[in-house]
Amino acid sequence: MTIARDPTIPPPRRLKPWNAVEKSLAKVGISGRMLVLAAPVLWLLVFFLIPLAVVFGISLSTKQFGRPPYSPLLTTEEGTVQLTLHLNNYIRLFTDNLYIAAYLSSIRIAFISTVITLFVGYPMAYAIARSPDKWRNILLMLVILPFFTSFLLRVYALTGFMRGNGVINQFLGLFGVEPLVMMQTDFAVYVGIVYTYLPFMILPLYTTLVKLDVSLFEASADLGARPLRTFLSVTLPLSLPGIIAGSMLVFIPAIGEYVIPSLLGGPETLMIGRVLWDEFFTAANWPRAAAVAVAMLVAVVVPIMLLQRAQSSVVER
Amino acid sequence: MRRGWFLPIAAALGFSFLYAPIVSLVIFSFNESRLVTVWSGFSTKWYGELFRDPQMLGAAWLSLQIAAISATIALVLGTLAAVALVRFRRFKGRTLFSGMVSAPLVMPDVITGLSLLLLFVAMEGFLGWPQGRGMLTIVIAHSTFCTAYVCVVVQSRLSDFDRSLEEAAMDLGASPVRTFFDITLPIIAPALVSGWLLGFTLSLDDLVIASFVSGPGSSTLPMVIFSKVRLGVSPDVNALATIIIGLVASGVLIATIIQLRSKPKRAKA
After folding, report:
1. Is A153's CB within 8 Å of B225's CB?
2. Closest CB from B8, B88, B100 relative to A33
3. Which residue, A48, A205, A239, B77, could crosslink B147 as a Cys pair with Cβ 3.0–4.6 Å?
4. How close does chain A come to B69, measured CA to CA in Å?
5. Burial B79-104 (b: 16+ CB within 10 A, else e)
6. What distance in Å separates the CA atoms of residue A200 and residue B105, rounded to the nearest whole number?
7. Residue A112 resides in a domain
8. Fold for domain B51-230?
9. Do B241 and A150 touch (CB under 8 A)?
10. Helices then strands, each counted (H, E), chain A
């Protein structure tokens, strides 16, 4: 495209059928670019963006019996259109202790699990990045492989591992240790999140760590820094984009997690995703569930923005 | 640099943490006893039970169909989105578009599920379509989040490859469409394959979104598994998990071998 065409060579004579189509479309003002963009833009508008707007709209409605089970926002009465908005769902969210407790405990559980995942995942990512070339791909494949096996089945595998007469307790029993109660506790939820989201932490960390220049470590060591010092003042700051990206990839979905708290957690393990689920499926209160979803969106907006920033800087390096 | 003992040990512990529960699940799927955690002898009876369970088989077939269709729709949409994001430097609403493409990656499932369900109900009220909920609505929902994954995979491949190949084709008179099909598509083909496979497995795996947008009589495999697992351990789920893990592991293994084999060839050429 950038090279000027040699004027002595005649341009290709025969117009391919497509070129003709393109020209006639261009006359009406439709470019090839618009055709490429049309399908994904339309699809995502209709099935991603508009649904979020619908959630917001219905969160301002109120439960009623019938189909659909919520009050209409717009009603026509004697020729005039009336807009009726209800704020009772939001008022309830801010005044009912159940919602506040669930909201805070989701953030707490997601935060603690993210920190644990970071501490487990960082040494693994670092070990893979520093391993010999022929090992690296195999180790990476081993990290990705569980991600491809079913999420639900991996959580189920954990229940077999942690239950009262499960593998861990049978193992401890060999040494005469009393069985530990692990299932149906917050501890089990932490383990579940760390276990299932570990690959999301390791991959971005690995991407930043593998690109670090080894000579930086050598320079630091030559200047007399101990390995720990080198790690804290060279490796750690340079891998910050990977840390942020990995942490957000764990934190954001963990906030809305439903499967893990309901299979591994106890009845008192409150998480906002579970509250939304129960509000929708058990209480059949769709507007309330929508309000909970809006509140959850507010909690993940900042992390999503952080993630987007970290990702662009991971790609740039 | 001195090689410490800390990293290898940490990595070994981490990998055992990742794999121990899966391995124990596979072992206990061959257990005779109904008590999943007490070994009482080798048996494959749970596999037989699994294949005689019509509910499980029906759900598996439905899930496979949904996954194949969703992955294919997502492949087309995701590739178009990736081409637009990588090749069109600037266009109106680019920020919004790239946000819309990548947000479903991290959006909590309960929000995606609820928002799509409310959309479908509202659309049915206004337009009369889609009538009721079932396979069609699940396919739409899965295509949407799989598009995001396909787009990420294809995007990284597109931005990696040498743009001058495309420019050469267009200098020689090929239209952008011809260039795309003759030059770009063969080069990004591996990314398309892995994008499709990723979409397929993610769709096969989804419980939460499908639970929201499915209708009566259209229970997917994860929904059936979840309702069984919720009631306690069931040995036939262990058998099913072993089959799925076996299929996935061999699939990934074959893909890796093909990739490793094709590398030296390319180096020679």
Report:
1. yes
2. B88
3. B77
4. 15
5. bbbbbbbbbeeeeeeeeebbbbbbbb
6. 12
7. yes
8. MetI-like fold (1.10.3720)
9. yes
10. 16, 2
Is pTM beyond 0.90? Reply is no
Which CATH number belongs to the domain containing residue A192 in this structure? 1.10.3720.10
Nearest-Cα residue of chain B relative to residue A262: B230
How many CB pairs (< 8 A) connect A and B? 254
Interchain proximity A47–B7, CB inside 8 Å: no
What's the complex ipTM? 0.86
Measured between CB atoms, which of B17, B177, B252 is closest to A141? B252
Query: What are B31's strand-pairing partners?
Result: B42
Of A41, A142, A304, the CB nearest to B15: A142
- Spatial distance between the Cα atoms of B142 and B71, rounded to a whole number of angstroms: 8
Can you read off the two tokens belonging to residue A162?
A: 């942690």
User: Looking at the 3D structure of chain A, how many domains does it have?
Assistant: 2
Residue-range domain boundaries for chain B: 51-230, 233-269
| Residue A115 shares a structural domain with residue A75 | no
Q: Tell me whether residues B229 and A48 touch, CB distance under 8 A.
A: no
Per-residue pLDDT tens digits of chain A, which is 317 residues long: 455 556 666 555 555 566 666 677 777 666 777 788 889 999 999 999 999 999 999 999 888 877 788 888 877 777 788 788 888 889 888 898 889 999 999 999 999 999 999 999 999 999 999 888 888 888 988 898 887 788 888 998 888 888 777 778 877 888 888 877 888 888 999 999 999 999 999 999 998 998 888 888 888 888 888 888 888 888 888 899 899 999 999 999 999 899 999 999 888 888 999 999 999 999 889 999 999 999 999 888 888 888 877 777 665 54
Q: How far apart are CA A64 and CA B216, in angstroms?
A: 22
Give the 3-state secondary structure of residue B114. Answer: helix
Q: Give the integer Cα–Cα distance in Å for B52 and B30.
A: 17
SS3 A165: coil
* DSSP secondary structure letter of residue A70: B
Q: Testing the interface with B: which of A109, A114, A152 to mutate, by most B Cβ within 10 A? A: A152
- To the nearest whole Å, the CA of B269 is away from the closest chain A CA by 22
Are A29 and A164 in a shared domain? no
Closest CA to A58 of A46, A68, A48, A47: A68
The C-alpha atoms of residue A279 and residue A286 are separated, in whole angstroms, by: 7
Q: How far is CA A128 from the centre of its chain?
A: 23
